[in-house]
Amino acid sequence: MSVQNRIESLKAKHAALESAIETEVKRPIPDNAHLHDLKRRKLLIKDEMSRIGSPIH
Questions:
Q1: pLDDT for 27-37, tens place per residue?
Q2: Of 19, 42, 52, 56, whose CB has the highest number of CB atoms within 10 Å?
Q3: Which domain of life does the protein's organism represent (predicted)?
Q4: Which residues are CB-neighbours of 35 under 8 A, at least 6 positions away?
Q5: Interior/surface letters 13-33, b for 16+ CB within 10 angstroms, e for the rest
Q6: CA 3, CA 18: separation in Å to the nearest integer?
């Protein structure tokens, strides 16, 4: 996988996690454990993108 492909893949995963976080937060009773896991995974992707040297947006 090329670096550019990897970056695009990470951006897509980051966006999907952001959407999942927004959906979870809007629930009447959010699952805090699930929300924490989503945020942790999103941060790991952000860290990987930072190591590659690509901005998320």
A1: 999 999 999 99
A2: 42
A3: Bacteria
A4: 21, 24, 25
A5: bbeebeebbeebeeeeeeeee
A6: 22
Q: How far apart are CA 34 and CA 54, in angstroms?
A: 27
Share of the chain above pLDDT 70, in %: 93
Written as six digits, the tokens of 8 are 């695009």
Q: Are the C-beta atoms of 25 and 35 separated by less than 8 Å?
A: yes
C-alpha 41/C-alpha 17 separation (Å) is 8
> Which residue has tokens 């999907």?
16
Q: Is the pTM of this model over 0.90?
A: no
Which residue matches tokens 């959407």? Answer: 19
Contact 54, 7 (CB under 8 A): yes
